[in-house]
């Protein structure tokens, strides 16, 4: 079998797919990668994590299966990369020296991740993942905890500047803003817009932080 990669070239699958018609695509590089990631999220949301296969993703993304096997050895590896690139960009947020600005920027980035085509199926997928504790553990360690730590760092800097009490710079307090974004999404079916995010920060997050009260069981 010969598989060609490049703009306008024909991609064929091997083995059980030998009789399938060729798939033509003009995507390459970042465009192809994003198509694979979006197809992974959609395929998993539709079929379930337990039935996710590299072949199914390749067919949905309209690309060659060999392209996936060269980079990912298992569907789980591909799924985790898909979450990282499509839903949860981990670039550092800029330091502005202003707590409100930094919190609004952090929550806006979270809302933006839910706005794309992969956002709705990803929410369905997260429910399915609850039945797979081993994957939830990896997901929490790889994605959730680092991003909550980034918000906790925003709070620590604000405490050092005197904007909030020191006890407010805690892991528990860092969850307040993200919880507001997710609750808005679950109740409304859409991510919060800029106005809603600013209201969350001004009416909920900042007042709670400035109160400086430690919740029971807070680490």
UniProtKB/TrEMBL annotation:
Keywords: DNA-binding, Transcription, Transcription regulation. PANTHER family: HTH-TYPE TRANSCRIPTIONAL REGULATOR RUTR (PTHR30055), TRANSCRIPTIONAL REGULATORY PROTEIN-RELATED (PTHR30055:SF225). This is Transcriptional regulatory protein. Residues 53-72 bind DNA. InterPro entries: Homeodomain-like_sf, HTH-type_TetR-like_transc_reg, HTH_TetR, Tet_transcr_reg_TetR-rel_C_sf, TetR_C. It holds the Pfam family TetR_C_11. Residues 30-90 form the HTH tetR-type domain. PROSITE patterns: HTH_TETR_2 (PS50977). It comes from Streptomyces sparsogenes DSM 40356. Gene3D superfamilies: Homeodomain-like, Tetracycline Repressor, domain 2.
């Amino acid at each position: 079998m010969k598989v060609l990669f490049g703009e306008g070239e024909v991609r064929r699958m091997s083995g059980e797919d030998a009789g399938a018609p060729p798939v033509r695509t003009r995507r390459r590089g970042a465009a192809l990668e994003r198509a694979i990631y979006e197809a992974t999220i959609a395929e998993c949301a539709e079929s379930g994590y337990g039935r996710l296969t590299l072949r199914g993703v390749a067919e949905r993304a309209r690309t060659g299966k060999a392209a996936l096997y060269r980079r990912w050895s298992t569907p789980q590896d591909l799924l985790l990369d898909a979450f990282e690139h499509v839903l949860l960009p981990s670039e550092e947020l800029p330091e502005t020296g202003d707590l409100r600005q930094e919190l609004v920027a952090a929550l806006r980035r979270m809302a933006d991740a839910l706005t794309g085509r992969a956002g709705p199926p990803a929410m369905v997928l997260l429910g399915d993942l609850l039945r797979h504790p081993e994957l939830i553990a990896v997901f929490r360690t790889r994605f959730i905890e680092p991003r909550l730590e980034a918000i906790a760092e925003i709070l620590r800097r604000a405490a050092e500047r005197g904007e909030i009490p020191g006890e407010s710079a805690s892991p528990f307090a860092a969850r307040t803003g993200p919880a507001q974004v997710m609750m808005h999404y679950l109740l409304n079916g859409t991510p919060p817009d800029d106005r809603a995010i600013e209201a969350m920060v001004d009416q909920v997050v900042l007042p709670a932080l400035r109160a400086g009260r430690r919740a029971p069981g807070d680490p």
